[in-house]
């Protein structure tokens, strides 16, 4: 069971170009990326991702209600660089053929973050991966981050290995109670319109590296109350 807590988190599922949205909960690709960072597993990692893809992931949100949940960050990238300097000129955005971009080479982006969010993530893992991943989360090879690299966790991520999901969720609720938090919603695998809103997400990674590939999964968002 993972506890994901930070001032900022951002879990993009389908954002491209100038607007980088975040879902209201951790994506499967973001959590897989966190695990691979802990293991120091870089590159495509197709074999490992193939094993992780069909395994269950349950997310429980423990949200604060006294703060605006979403932060929009406006970025200007590539302005103010000296074009005559060979190093600074490399930082100026250009078109795919190397020409100057419209507007002088400045790229504008909007990036969205969840503020003060807390999630418990219960992952199903095969026996031969559970211990290596648990060890890696406690002694990660690369820095861990919650969606984007500037989203640094502010509490311990790894919170135990359990024989079944109910035991992991019970531990998550104990942590939440200690922090004075209540469950807001949970996200479970599969589509069940009788229980909540059903979403189709393209967030199951099958290949990382320079060229990333994903497949779809269906989830149900179950509101508490």
Summarize the entry for a quick read.
The protein has 225 residues and is α+β, with helices and mostly antiparallel strands.
List the helices and strands and how they pair.
Layout (H helix, E strand, L loop, with lengths): L1 E8 L9 E2 L7 H12 L6 H7 L4 E5 L8 E8 L29 E17 L3 H12 L26 H14 L6 E5 L7 E11 L5 E11 L2
Parallel strand pairs: 2-5
Antiparallel strand pairs: 1-5, 3-5, 3-6, 4-5, 6-8, 7-8
Task: Summarize the structure in words.
- The chain is built from four helices and eight strands.
- With 225 residues, the chain is an alpha+beta fold.
- The longest helix is centred in the C-terminal third of the chain and has 14 residues, at 165-178.
- It is globular and about 60 Å long.
- It starts with a strand and ends with a strand.
- The mean pLDDT is 91.
Uncertain spans: none
Overall SS class: alpha+beta
Number of helices: 4
**What is the end-to-end distance?**
24 Å
DSSP E strands, number: 8
Keywords:
single chain, 225 residues, 8-stranded mixed sheet, 4 helices, globular
């Amino acid at each position: 069971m993972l506890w994901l807590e930070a001032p900022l988190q951002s879990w993009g599922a389908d954002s491209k170009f100038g607007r980088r949205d975040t879902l209201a909960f951790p994506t499967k690709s973001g959590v897989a990326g966190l695990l691979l960072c802990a293991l120091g597993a870089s590159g495509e990692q197709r074999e490992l991702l193939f094993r992780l893809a069909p395994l269950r992931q349950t997310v429980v949100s423990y949200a604060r209600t006294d703060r605006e949940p979403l932060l929009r960050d406006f970025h200007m990238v590539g302005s103010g660089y000296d074009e005559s300097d060979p190093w600074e000129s490399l930082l100026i955005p250009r078109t795919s053929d190397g020409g100057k971009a419209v507007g002088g080479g400045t790229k504008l982006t909007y990036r969205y973050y969840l503020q003060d969010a807390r999630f418990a993530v219960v992952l199903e893992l095969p026996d031969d991966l559970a211990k290596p991943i648990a060890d890696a989360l406690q002694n990660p090879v690369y820095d861990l981050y919650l969606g984007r690299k500037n989203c640094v966790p502010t509490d311990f991520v790894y919170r135990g290995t359990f024989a079944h999901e109910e035991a992991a969720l019970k531990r998550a609720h104990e942590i939440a109670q200690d922090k004075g938090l209540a469950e807001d919603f949970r996200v479970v695998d599969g589509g069940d319109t009788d229980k909540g809103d059903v979403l189709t997400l393209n967030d199951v990674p099958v290949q990382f590296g320079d060229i990333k590939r994903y497949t779809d999964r269906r989830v149900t968002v179950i509101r508490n109350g």
